[in-house]
Write a structure and sequence with these properties.
Elements (H helix, E strand, L loop, with lengths): L2 E15 L16 E10 L5 E6 H7 L4 E7 L4 E4 L1 E3 L11 H8 L4 H6 L4 H10 L2 H17 L2 E7 L6 H17 L3 E9 L8 H21 L7 E4 L8 H13 L3 E6 L7 H8 L3 E4 L5 H10 L2 E4 L1 H6 L7 H6 L4 E3 L12 H12 L3 H7 L2 H6 L17 E4 L6 H4 L4 H4 E6 L2 E5 L10
Parallel strand pairs: 1-4, 1-5, 6-7, 7-8, 8-9, 9-10, 10-11, 11-12, 12-13
Antiparallel strand pairs: 1-2, 2-3, 5-14, 14-15, 15-16
Length: about 425
């Protein structure tokens, strides 16, 4: 009954997503989310949820308690903080000129082969200072937070040499330590083959130089990387090179979470299932066998509706994946080629273009996205013991978060991380500090 950090009381709808400690939701479970009407919740001083339940029960249970902050959620909905399972947010130099090229009919690989795409960004990122990269990265994370994201996967991958990859990972580490947002960091040194190297030479460099250095920096406590990523694609890293890099990353304790089957069918899904990958992203060209293998291996499919939309690719087979028992997650794929900060817009696109239901999309952007990052034990749902990462929307129905395409700026009243309000809409008054 003592002192607590936060009380959210009288929410019209409290969307738990999960209520039985599920690691993920798939098949029918993803279509029937746990929800409490007229409910309240308490977050403790440690940033974790202490109690969830009907408003009158919570009021009685905590009648003698004190709170650093109380928010009346009458007429509003409370949801778990959104989880963005795939982003490339550390880079310099935008590619707005390439958007015009794409609109004129140039394909992704045509731009890439002409020296644009990843290589254009690599050139600018190598020149940028660590301080410059940190400030633009911080601004991007703040925009993601305002759109409701409280846990974000962040990749390196615009260095393609050890020096710049480490510079990017240091920037991500700095944000982990200094910002109120969850970050899962990913080493993506195999994002493209560096100019002047073959894929085999690049693979050898990563295995012999990059990964040993990451292991050393992890042991010294300087950089903590969570995942390893490879762009497994025709003309980039083939299946054999991908296998070698992913296995080497796994051997030093990194989770496998990589790009696969995007532009060409590469049997990436089959490889990921074989290697015990936690997640594979894109999958526009995944095979039927790959879908079956991923479902069996409990390997999450991180689908990226913005990429298929912006590159005019065929949509990933979300419905087939859901029906076959694949754990479907969502990500924004924020990068210079797909400039989207907003998981509410990603969920909307997933529903309209990939034929997901709103409940399936919310599960994919919360508990399943957290699972894809190996973090669903503490993130992705509103349950006792989990981290108090929450969003409050100014609506009596939670579906408005997806229904209002591009409307999240006016809809989201509060974004909360570990029970601390990190964003408050202007109409709710000025931010109050603890």
């Amino acid at each position: 009954r003592g002192r607590h950090r936060l009380l959210l009381e009288n929410a019209w709808q409290l969307v738990l997503v999960c209520s039985r400690g599920e690691e993920f939701l798939r098949r029918g479970d993803a279509a029937s989310l746990a929800l409490l009407p007229e409910a309240s919740l308490v977050v403790g001083l440690d940033g974790c949820i202490k109690a969830v339940g009907p408003a009158d029960v919570i009021r009685h249970q905590f009648s003698g308690a004190t709170f650093e902050r109380i928010i009346d959620c009458s007429g509003k909905c409370v949801l778990p903080g959104l989880v963005d399972a795939h982003t490339h947010p550390v880079w310099a130099g935008d590619r707005v000129h390439e958007f015009a090229m794409k609109l004129a009919g140039a394909s992704y690989m045509e731009i890439h082969q002409a020296g644009g795409g990843i290589h254009f960004t690599v050139e600018h990122t190598r020149k940028a200072t660590e301080e410059e990269l940190f400030h633009t990265f911080k601004d991007r994370l703040e925009r993601m937070r305002r759109a409701g994201s409280t846990l974000v996967e962040c990749k390196s991958g615009y260095g393609l040499n050890l020096e710049t990859e480490l510079k990017m990972l240091r920037v991500i580490e700095r944000a982990k330590q200094s910002m109120d947002i969850g970050i899962s960091s990913t080493y993506c040194g195999a994002h493209s083959v560096p100019k002047g190297k073959t894929a085999t030479e690049a693979t050898d460099d990563i295995i012999n130089n990059h990964l040993p250095k990451l292991k050393e920096l992890k042991l010294s406590g300087e950089i903590h990387v969570n995942n390893i990523d490879v762009f497994c694609e025709k003309g980039v890293f083939d299946l054999d090179s991908t296998r070698r890099i992913l296995q080497a990353g796994k051997d030093i304790g990194l989770q496998i979470n990589f790009h696969g089957d995007e532009l060409h069918p590469m049997k990436s899904a089959e490889l990921g299932a074989e290697l015990g990958a936690r997640a594979i992203s894109h999958l526009e060209e995944v095979s039927d066998e790959g879908i079956t293998a991923m479902a069996r291996a409990k390997c999450a499919a991180v689908l990226l509706p913005t990429t298929a939309y912006m590159l005019r690719l065929k949509q990933p087979q979300a419905r087939k994946m859901l029906e076959e028992g694949v754990i479907v997650a969502l990500g924004s794929d924020f990068n210079p080629n797909a400039y989207c900060f907003s998981m509410p817009m990603v969920m909307h696109l997933a529903c309209v273009n990939m034929k997901m239901s709103m409940k399936e999309a919310l599960a994919a952007a919360t508990i399943n996205a957290a699972y894809a990052l190996g973090k669903s034990d503490m993130h992705g749902s509103i349950e006792t013991g989990k981290q108090g990462d929450l969003i409050i929307i100014n609506s009596s129905r939670w579906e408005h978060l997806i229904y209002q395409f591009g409307g999240h700026e006016a809809l989201i009243d509060y974004v909360i991380v570990k029970g601390k309000v990190i964003y408050q809409n202007e109409r709710c008054g000025k931010m109050s500090s603890y």
